[in-house]
Automatic annotation (TrEMBL):
InterPro entries: AKR, Aldo/ket_reductase_CS, NAD(P)_OxRdtase_dom_sf, NADP_OxRdtase_dom. GO terms for molecular function: oxidoreductase activity. Belongs to the aldo/keto reductase family. CDD domains: AKR_AKR5F1 (cd19133). Gene3D superfamilies: NADP-dependent oxidoreductase domain. Keywords: NADP, Oxidoreductase. Its EC number is 1.1.1.-. This is Aldo/keto reductase. The keyword Isomerase does not apply. It is an enzyme of class 1 (oxidoreductase). The lineage of its organism: Bacteria, Bacillati, Actinomycetota, Actinomycetes, Micromonosporales. Residues 25-260 form the NADP-dependent oxidoreductase domain.
Length: 285
């Protein structure tokens, strides 16, 4: 299964699996088993974050797996509370310690909030020291991304943003492509919102290929060259979500899915001051 996974090349030459595994909202006491199951299923890229509170459990599963480090692609993210140059560097060291790793494959600024320019300088330095193989951002809207690119030395390798059939980000993907930034989807299934798993358009396409709606959504994103990191705590779904390299969606099917776009988040708006205040006030150990 893993052998069928595709690698994409980031703007600094680092190669990243186009299909990985996310652990947001996996409770800390389940994460070690869930990541162990995901690695056994064939996933080699794991996406966590300091704010998920489960980096140590991810680290234990990685250590126990015995999989050589160079076959894994590990991403974590820095929380808003820890922006700033010195704080960011301490936070990177903390994440490395919790994960039990001597380097990350990808380190992301989790939100475009707080003093993230200073964090970016710390990340550029850590990249120079080889502690992180690639650095990037998450939840950056186009204005913030372009500004960060224009006023710093290193262009983010990745921008991890909400991307799914109801919020497709095609224009933004094009802008990122022109700027050399790889789009990575979070919430590929919109966490099931808007009845995604029973959507009639997706269900009809799934039936035509003898696949599930989840597989069609992942295939559609992969055919658009979007990196995906679906989350599941169930081994049968982990396996199912990997089986997306043995079929192709037709142009007509891609167009029908394009018609589901609402152009808006199904979660929250990063421009909403109340949301900015809520996120900025969230504290992480
Ligand atoms: N950067 C950010 O701000 C940010 C925000 C959100 C997420 N993320 C990252 O993106 C990853 C994925 O997003 P997400 O976890 O929010 O949501 P998601 O992957 O869109 O959806 C996960 C939900 O889909 C269900 N599911 C998974 N596979 C399925 C299948 N084959 N059939 C039916 N249901 C299925 C899961 O249930 P079960 O677990 O019960 O199977 C879970 O309820 C996260 O884990 C995290 O790593 C990043």
């Amino acid at each position: 299964m893993a052998a069928q996974n595709r690698l994409i090349t980031l703007n600094n030459g680092v190669r990243m699996p186009i299909l990985g595994f996310g652990v947001f909202q996996v409770p800390d006491d389940q994460t070690e088993q869930v990541v162990t199951d995901a690695l056994a299923a064939g996933y080699r890229a794991i996406d966590t974050a300091a704010s998920y509170g489960n980096e140590e459990a991810v680290g234990r599963a990685i250590a126990k797996s015995g999989i050589p480090r160079d076959q894994l692609f590990v991403t974590t993210k820095m929380w808003i509370q820890h922006t700033g140059e010195e704080t960011a560097r301490r936070e990177l060291d903390k994440s490395l310690r919790k994960l039990g790793l001597d380097h990350l494959d990808l380190y992301l600024i989790h939100q475009p909030l707080g003093d993230y320019y200073s964090s970016w300088h710390a990340m550029e330095k850590a990249y120079g020291e080889g502690l992180v193989k690639a650095i990037g951002v998450s939840n950056f809207y186009p204005d913030r991304l372009v500004d960060l690119i224009l006023h710093n030395d290193i262009t983010p390798a990745v921008n991890q943003i909400e991307t799914h059939p109801f919020f497709q980000r095609a224009d933004y993907q094009q802008l990122m492509r022109e700027r050399g930034v790889q789009i990575e989807s979070w919430g590929p299934f919109a966490e099931g919102k808007n009845d995604l798993f029973t959507n009639p358009v997706l269900a009809a396409i799934a039936a035509a290929h003898d696949k599930s709606v989840a597989q069609v959504v992942l295939r559609w994103l992969i055919q658009r060259d979007v990196v995906v990191i679906p989350k599941s705590v169930r081994p049968e779904r982990m396996a199912q979500n990997l089986e997306v390299f043995d079929f192709d969606l037709t142009d007509d099917e891609m167009t029908r899915i394009a018609g589901l776009d609402t152009g808006a988040s199904v979660f929250f708006d990063h421009h909403d001051p109340q949301m900015v205040a809520w996120l900025g006030g969230r504290r992480v150990d």
